[in-house]
Amino acid sequence: MKILVWAAAALVAAGFASVPAHAQGPRTERIPGGEVRLEWPELNGDPRLRQTLAIGPTRLAMQATDLGEFSLQANGRALLTGEEGFGGFAGVYPAQDRTFVLLTVESGGRVCPARFRILEMGQGGMAVSPAFGTCAPNPRATVTEDGRLRVQVAAWQRRAAQVVTFRDGAMREGR
Predict the structure, then answer these.
(1) For a Cys staple, 137 with which of 38, 60, 114, 121, CB 3.0–4.6 Å?
(2) Strand locations in 50-113, DSSP E?
């Protein structure tokens, strides 16, 4: 048995095999404007990805469920529940009197690797945009002079490129 354990460890060290992410323990990944902590707590006996992002006093948490869905919470309060697919934090964009968080949803598939949502956090509360995108990964996000988040998503297969802006809970398509 010791030889098998040693052989498995040697294969991992040599790069011929990998250790599942949940077995590596918690880790931190950088995103534009912040850092996301990744953990794999067990849910019904299986490890499920939980991502957390702290922005000032607000702690955002995105949790995968055992039904192929995810939820988003802010300081324990549900913002999204039962969302189909995978979710993740893609970037933090401070504006004048608010902060925007770009969320990735439905990522990981070959047909449609990524769609997006925007979380707006301001003095008036929080708002989440509808899902948008062309399925192309790697959007470009910037804050405009008037304090909107502008997201450009490249064309993907037969879908035209898309540009959206978001502020005060309202999303607009176009420039």
Answers:
(1) 114
(2) 50-55, 58-64, 69-74, 77-84, 87-94, 98-105
Q: For 101-121, what is the HEC assignment? A: EEEEECCCCCCCCEEEEEEEE
* Contacts with 81 (C-beta within 8 Å, 6 or more apart), sequence order: 71, 72
Question: Which contiguous run of DSSP H or E holds residue 126?
Answer: strand 125-128
Q: How far apart (Å, rounded) are the C-alpha atoms in residues 156 and 137?
A: 9
DSSP helix/strand/coil, 5: helix
Per-residue b/e over 31-59, b at no fewer than 16 CB within 10 Å?
A: bebbebebbbeeeeeeebbbbbbebeeee
Instruction: Provide the 8-state DSSP code for 131.
Output: P
pTM: 0.81
Query: Each residue of 47-100: pLDDT tens digit?
Result: 678 899 999 999 999 988 767 788 899 999 999 888 777 788 999 999 989 999
Residue 88 makes CB contacts below 8 A (sequence gap 6+) with 36, 51, 62, 103, 104, 107
Distance CA 128, CA 152 (A): 18
Using an 8 Å Cβ cutoff, are 92 and 129 in contact?
no
Greatest extent of the chain over all pairs of C-alpha atoms, in Å: 65
How many whole angstroms separate alpha carbon 138 and alpha carbon 124? Answer: 29
